[in-house]
Design a protein that fits this description.
This protein is of the alpha/beta class. Helices cover 37% and strands 28% of the residues. It has 15 helices and 17 strands. The chain is elongated, with a radius of gyration of 25 Å.
C-alpha cells in the first residue's frame, strides 16, 4: 500500500447527501487515495443529534456535536448542513483555519458567495461547489475552467428536478398540478413544504451561481427575476402541445449587447420550449443545462439533478480536487468577478410570447386586440380562436384567443398586457408565457 500523506476531512451534516458522502469515503478510501495521492481520513461528522436515526450505517464514534473543534482540526471541510446559519459561520471558520471547503449549499452561495470567496482568497484557500448547481451534473468546472477562455453568451437550463417531474407528468398524462404535486411528495421528489421548488426560488439560487461563473460578475439573488409554476394548468399544457411546445421551468442567464454597453439578464420562469429542442426531451426529475459560447458553440450537460448518492458523487469529485491542491501546494483558485457587468431587470429582455385571452365574441374584437398590442410595438404572429361553449353546451358569447407574438421587449409586453386587462372586450387574461430556445 502506498504511503500517502494523510489529509483530515471534517463532514458537517449527515442527511441524505452527507451520509452517502461519509459511506463512500469509508468504503472507497483506497481508490480515492490513489486518485487524490493523499489518504482522505474522515475524522468526524458534526450533527445536531448523534443518536438520530439515519439511512446509512456509520460508526457512531465519528459523530460529534462539537463542530468548531472538528473544523479547526481539518484540512478539508465538507459542508452539507444546508441553510444559511450556522453553515456560513462554519465555512468561514474552516477557511480561516486554512482548510479548503466543499459545499453543496446553493442558498448560502447565492446570498453570501462574494463574502465566502473573499475569505478564501485572503488565506489562499479554495471553495468547491460542483454539487450546488445541478446535482450530479458537472457544470461548475466546465464554466469555471473549460470555458474560461471563451465567451459564454447564454445558459438555459432545467435545474430543479421537482418542477420538471411535475411539468413532465402534466405534459405526458394531462394531469392537474395539484395531483402531480401530491404524487411527487409521496415519492420524495418534493418536500412537505414545496414552496422553494414550485415558486422557483431553488432554481433562482442556482441561476445566480451559474451566471456569476459564466459572466465573471457577482450576481445578487435579488437581481434574479423569479416566477414559479403554480399557475400552470392542464389547459395551458395542452395549448402548448397544440402549438408545438412543451412548458419547462427554465433558468436563463444571458449576455445582452447594446451599441456601447454589455449587461446580463438572469431569470427563472415557466417558458414554452419547442419540442425539437434538446431541453424538451428532459423527462422526470432529471436536470439539463444548455450552454452557448462564442467559440465552443452549443453544449448540453444532462443527468440526475438530485438524490443522495448522485449528489455525493459531485461532492467527492470536489474533495479529490481539494486534496490534489493540498498536495501540489500553492494558493487556491479564486472566483473571477472582474467583468462586473450590470444585471438588468426583466423588462430589458426580448423574446416571443404566447398570450391566452378570453374575450367577448363579437365583431371588431380582433381589431381592438391587435390595436392594443401594437400601441406598445407588440405585433401578432399567429392567432387561434375558439368559441367557449355555454353551460348548456350551446354556443357561448365568449371566445378564447391564443396569440403568438413576434419578438418584443418584456417591458412592452407587460404594458400591453395591462392595456388588455383594462379593456372592455377582454374578459380575462388567462396566461402569458415566454418562448425560449428557438
Amino acid at each position: 500500500m502506498t504511503d500517502y500523506r494523510r489529509l483530515r476531512v471534517a463532514l458537517l451534516g449527515a442527511g441524505a447527501v452527507g451520509s452517502q458522502v461519509a459511506s463512500l469515503l469509508l468504503r472507497h478510501g483506497d481508490e480515492l487515495a490513489d486518485r487524490a495521492e493523499a489518504r482522505l481520513e474522515l475524522v468526524g461528522i458534526a450533527v445536531r443529534d448523534v443518536d438520530a436515526p439515519r439511512d446509512v450505517d456509520l460508526p457512531r464514534e465519528l459523530f460529534t456535536t462539537d463542530a468548531e473543534a472538528l473544523i479547526t482540526g481539518a484540512d478539508i471541510v465538507i459542508e452539507l448542513m444546508g441553510g444559511i446559519e450556522p453553515a456560513r459561520s462554519n465555512i468561514l471558520l474552516g477557511l480561516g483555519s486554512g482548510a479548503d471547503v466543499v459545499t453543496a449549499n446553493k442558498a448560502l452561495l447565492a446570498t453570501h458567495g462574494p463574502e465566502i470567496y473573499e475569505a478564501a482568497d485572503r488565506v489562499g484557500a479554495s471553495v468547491y461547489y460542483e454539487a450546488a448547481a445541478a446535482g450530479a451534473i458537472p457544470i461548475i468546472r466546465p464554466l469555471r475552467d473549460s470555458l474560461a477562455g471563451d465567451r459564454v453568451v447564454r445558459i438555459m437550463g432545467i435545474v430543479n428536478g421537482t418542477t420538471n417531474y411535475i411539468l413532465d407528468r402534466m405534459d405526458s398524462e394531462g394531469a392537474d398540478f395539484a395531483d402531480v404535486l401530491a404524487d411527487a411528495q409521496r415519492l420524495g421528489y418534493a418536500e412537505a413544504d414545496p414552496t422553494a421548488d414550485v415558486e422557483g426560488h431553488d432554481a433562482a439560487q442556482k441561476a445566480a451561481i451559474l451566471a456569476s461563473l459564466a459572466f465573471h460578475t457577482a450576481v445578487p439573488l435579488d437581481a434574479v427575476h423569479c416566477e414559479g409554476i403554480t399557475g400552470v394548468t392542464a389547459a395551458m399544457i395542452e395549448e402548448a402541445r397544440a402549438a408545438g411546445f412543451v412548458i419547462k421551468l427554465l433558468a436563463v442567464c444571458e449576455r445582452l449587447s447594446g451599441e456601447d454597453t454589455e449587461s446580463i439578464s438572469v431569470r427563472v420562469y415557466p417558458a414554452l420550449v419547442p419540442r425539437t429542442h434538446p431541453l424538451a426531451s428532459v423527462h422526470g426529475a432529471n436536470n439539463a443545462v444548455f450552454v452557448e459560447a462564442e467559440a465552443a458553440g452549443s453544449l448540453m450537460f444532462y443527468g440526475a439533478g438530485a438524490g443522495g448518492v448522485q449528489t455525493a458523487s459531485a461532492v467527492l469529485g470536489d474533495v479529490v480536487s481539494a486534496a490534489r491542491r493540498h498536495i501540489a501546494g500553492g494558493t487556491g483558485v479564486g472566483e473571477s468577478t472582474r467583468a462586473n457587468l450590470p444585471v438588468v431587470p426583466i423588462g430589458h429582455v426580448w423574446t416571443r410570447y404566447q398570450i391566452t385571452l378570453e374575450v367577448a365574441d363579437e365583431p371588431g374584437v380582433l381589431a381592438t386586440i391587435a390595436g392594443l398590442l401594437s400601441e406598445g410595438d407588440v405585433s401578432v404572429a399567429t392567432l387561434v380562436q375558439t368559441v367557449v361553449a355555454g353551460e348548456d353546451g350551446a354556443e357561448g358569447t365568449t371566445a378564447r384567443l391564443i396569440i403568438g407574438t413576434h419578438r418584443a421587449a418584456d417591458s412592452a409586453l407587460s404594458a400591453a398586457v395591462e392595456r388588455l386587462t383594462a379593456s372592455d372586450v377582454v374578459e380575462r387574461v388567462v396566461s402569458v408565457l415566454r418562448v425560449e430556445g428557438e
